Amino acid sequence: MTHACAYSADRPARTEALLHAERLCAARGVRLTPLRRRVLELVQSRTEAVKAYDLLAQLSTEDHAAKPPTVYRALDFLLEQGLVHRVDSLNAFVGCNHPDTPHAAHLLLCSQCGRVEELHSDTMDAAIAQTVAATGFFAHHARLEVQGLCAACAASTRPARRA
Ligand SMILES: [Zn+2]
Ligand SMILES: [Zn+2]
């Protein structure tokens, strides 16, 4: 099974995602503090990956007394709870649309518009696991970050190249 999952930054979807995060944290007995909630909201409001210092800049214009360690701790919490994913190659973060179950999220990164999509593929996971195991290496986890153009950007740049 393979499917790509685009982040939706429209308001109803964001509100629903935040409510879902609240319910999830309540069920797990962990606290989604106002700052953690606001950081999550800021990450979810974008379709592209967000860097920690952008979050800091935004938060410093608001009421939150957000110092770098506070924001990093909030991000660590959100990562632990699976509510956001780290984009290693960009040193940035994206929201996760299905935080209920832990999963290896491969990421498709558009170099033109910055859009990030999550890719889930059992076939790919199995192929990576098998290929790596064959070398004798014992993998804890494997996650791909694929650079390129999203479908919309690819469609809009192709005619220009032909012209
Ligand atoms: Zn995810
Ligand atoms: Zn794009």
Structure notes:
- The structure is a single chain.
- Helix 1 (11-28) packs antiparallel against helix 2.
- The model has no long low-confidence stretch (mean pLDDT 88).
- It is built from 6 helices and 6 strands.
- It has one domain (2-162): Winged helix-like DNA-binding domain superfamily/Winged helix DNA-binding domain (Arc Repressor Mutant, subunit A, Orthogonal Bundle), CATH 1.10.10.
- The protein is of the alpha+beta class.
- The chain has helices at residues 11-28, 34-44, 52-60, 68-80, 122-134, 151-162, and strands spanning 2-6, 84-87, 92-95, 106-110, 116-121, 145-148.
- Residues 110, 112-113, 115, 149-150, 152-153 line the site of one zinc ion.
- One zinc ion is lined by residues 110, 112-113, 115, 149-150, 152-153.
Question: How is this structure best summarized?
Answer:
Helix content is about 45%, strand content about 15%. It is an alpha+beta fold and about 160 residues long.
Topology:
Blueprint: E1 2-6, H1 11-28, H2 34-44, H3 52-60, H4 68-80, E2 84-87, E3 92-95, E4 106-110, E5 116-121, H5 122-134, E6 145-148, H6 151-162
Parallel strand pairs: 4-6
Antiparallel strand pairs: 1-5, 2-3, 4-5
Helix pairs in contact: 1-2, 2-4, 3-4
The chain binds zinc ion (ZN) (2 copies).
Q: Bound small molecules, which ones? A: zinc ion
Main structural class:
alpha+beta
Q: Percent of residues in beta strands?
A: 15-25%
How many domains make up the coordinates? 1
